[in-house]
Write a structure and sequence with these properties.
The chain is mostly helical. The chain has one domain. A two-stranded antiparallel sheet has the order 1-2. β1 and β2 form a beta hairpin. α2 packs antiparallel against α7. The longest helix has about 35 residues. The radius of gyration is 15 Å and the shape is globular.
């Protein structure tokens, strides 16, 4: 087993457990006046992704169903950080920086080509929609933002982290799903 695979098998259970908090942190950062619009788009696209009915890996798939959501948050945070350069106050900056740093583990797992495809997919979420909410609408319509906040709060309240067995076969299954679902260049 490679060192990266070992690190992934160790990290992914905690990523699943922290998904509601990570989601809430990304939303708080996206609502901050300290961020520019493009950085907000990356974060809102990543948060909104969690509520897509058809995402890359169906949420009900044992062990890996919510990992695509965790990955999207990390890639969205990294893109927002790159866009913003700095994220202002520590309360906004620290959770986003922590998520962004963890994206490197996903890069290494996926390899250059698949990681680039995933990054492109996440960048496209800036203009995407979930539950009828476009990112542009989230930026301009307080009612749409309140609906997203309500969804995030409900998810935070109701989510029970799925188990993740630390079996390398789960990583193979995860990579296969992403390779099959992500648009090829």
């Amino acid at each position: 087993m490679s060192d990266n695979h070992h690190q992934c098998l160790e990290a992914f259970p905690s990523w699943l457990a922290s998904l509601p908090l990570d989601l809430r942190s990304a939303l708080v950062a996206a609502r901050s006046d300290e961020l520019g619009e493009e950085a907000k788009r990356y974060l809102l696209g990543a948060v909104n992704y969690l509520f897509k009915s058809l995402d890359l890996i169906p949420d009900g798939i044992d062990d890996i169903g919510y990992l695509d959501d965790a990955f999207v948050l990390r890639f969205g945070a990294r893109a927002a950080l790159r866009e913003a350069g700095t994220l202002g106050s520590e309360a906004v900056r620290t959770p986003v920086e922590n998520l962004a740093k963890e994206a490197v583990l996903v890069d290494e797992l996926l390899g250059d080509e698949l990681a680039k495809r995933f990054e492109t997919y996440v960048a496209g979420l800036r203009t995407g929609a979930a539950r009828g909410r476009m990112v542009d609408e989230l930026l301009s319509d307080p009612n749409a933002m309140r609906e997203l906040e309500a969804d995030v709060n409900a998810f935070h309240h109701d989510f029970a982290a799925p188990s993740f067995s630390q079996d390398e076969k789960n990583l193979v299954k995860l990579i296969a799903f992403l390779d099959a679902k992500l648009p090829a260049k």
